[in-house]
Amino acid sequence: MMIQFPSFPVVFAIVFVLTLIVKHRKKSHAQKLPPGPMKLPLIGNLHQLIIGSSIPHVALERLAGKYGPIMHLQLGEGSAIVISSAEAAEEVLKEHELVFAQRPTFFAFEVGEYGNQGIVFAPHGSFWRQIRKVFIVELLGARQVRSFKALREEEVENLIGSIASSVGSSINLTEKILRTTNSIVSRAAFGKKCRDADEFLAILNEGNKLASGFGMADFFPSLKFVPFEIFGAGTDTSATTVEWAMAEMLRNPAVLEKAQAEVRRVLKGKKNISEEDIHELHYLKLIVKETLRLHPPGALMPRESTEECEINGYNIPAKTKTIINLWAMGRNPKHWDDPNCFKPERFHQSSINYLGTNFEYIPFGAGRRICPGISFAVANMELQLAQLLYHFDWKLSDGIKPEELDMTEESGFTVRKKHALRVIATPALIS
Ligand code: HEM
């Protein structure tokens, strides 16, 4: 029997069709978006962020539990991915650092001519590089931070004085901490206290309330951009962290006692604390770290891809808004034992720090856009906490027991405590 070979045009046609099929398969695999919840027409997944009792970082954490640490969302017309694990964050912030060095304009404050002119939302490029350099040289570098030592000490002494004048009665500690931080930041930035500190604090409060409806700070009225950035990035973040640290200690009296014992042992007999003393307050430093794990002020860190790339086999198109859920990563049981417990000891003899290399713990971000204010913020927060612990004993107002303290969060520019921290201070017996 004669075997009939197909003619050349037929072979060519078969090879051509097979090549097309393989190419199409490869392409559709590479174009696979990360998994995500079902999208509604027009709004996509927006309703999942703003409807219901959960605030956005909590809602996103829950969704990530279902769809994974790289999740795709449709936010109106925009496509977004949400990152919720250390491994995924490392892919975005280290392996594809350059691709994700951009901030999305979705989050930008379009304030007249100042829109996008500040450092926080500046597109990655030469303008951003220049302005970041100016920030570091003039305000946030180690030498500059040291040079603000005297003004920090003076403002924190004022805080202690103002609390001392109302010992025994209920005080709003949230407001006092915010005021002190605002004075430190404005004196460092402008050489004087903010002329309208009251107005500024009122606006910041109002902005936080407005933004809380959206969960992200989408807009802010009438302030010029760069000064606002210094305040917005510097004041609210640090003050919120000091407030959460005090709230966590009041809720965990054993931690409070241990921290006070350390401060009083190291500073024994001193009338006041200088910054040199702080270096020896090892437990206090663990408290700051643990507070930033559970309460990163910028819970949802915004970035954007500038070009198409592939992460864990998923295709991430150019201009994809990228939300890194720092809050979820700090509480991810894969990375932390007993993740919801406030245990500063977990950082004892641990090499994990907040400098952007341990991706399970990046409260200040990572990579080239990491927060340039780390030294400034830490010096400010540690001094306030050390002084508060040294000079006073603390209890909650209105007979509230530690375990009853309301720790509800409110999401705005930062994730704050929803209800101000009201406390009663009594002078400590320091021998
Ligand atoms: C507890 C205090 C603070 C926390 C937790 C914090 C956190 C952050 C985070 C998460 C980012 C985004 C980083 C990234 O995208 O990788 C950021 C950016 C920034 N922070 Fe902070 N911050 C704090 C205090 C400060 C202070 C005190 C200042 C200045 C006075 C400051 C100035 C900035 C600026 C200018 C940026 C934008 C950097 C850029 O885009 O290049 N921050 N911060």
Automatic annotation (TrEMBL):
Q: Which UniProt keywords apply?
A: Heme, Iron, Metal-binding, Monooxygenase, Oxidoreductase
Iron among keywords: yes
User: Which superkingdom heads the taxonomic lineage of this protein's source?
Assistant: Eukaryota
Under the heading InterPro entries, the entry gives:
Cyt_P450 (IPR001128), Cyt_P450_CS (IPR017972), Cyt_P450_E_grp-I (IPR002401), Cyt_P450_sf (IPR036396)
Residue sites binding heme per the record: 371
**Cofactor(s) named in the record:** heme
CDD domains linked? CYP71-like
Q: Transmembrane ranges?
A: none
The Swiss-Prot or TrEMBL record annotates one GO molecular function as:
oxidoreductase activity, acting on paired donors, with incorporation or reduction of molecular oxygen
Q: Name one Pfam family in it.
A: p450
Transferase among keywords? no
Which family is this protein grouped under?
Answer: Belongs to the cytochrome P450 family.
UniProt cross-references to PANTHER family, sorted A to Z? CYTOCHROME P450 71D11-LIKE, CYTOCHROME P450 FAMILY 71 PROTEIN
Name-wise, this protein is Cytochrome P450
Q: Which organism is it from?
A: Escallonia rubra
User: Organism classification, top ranks?
Assistant: Eukaryota, Viridiplantae, Streptophyta, Embryophyta, Tracheophyta
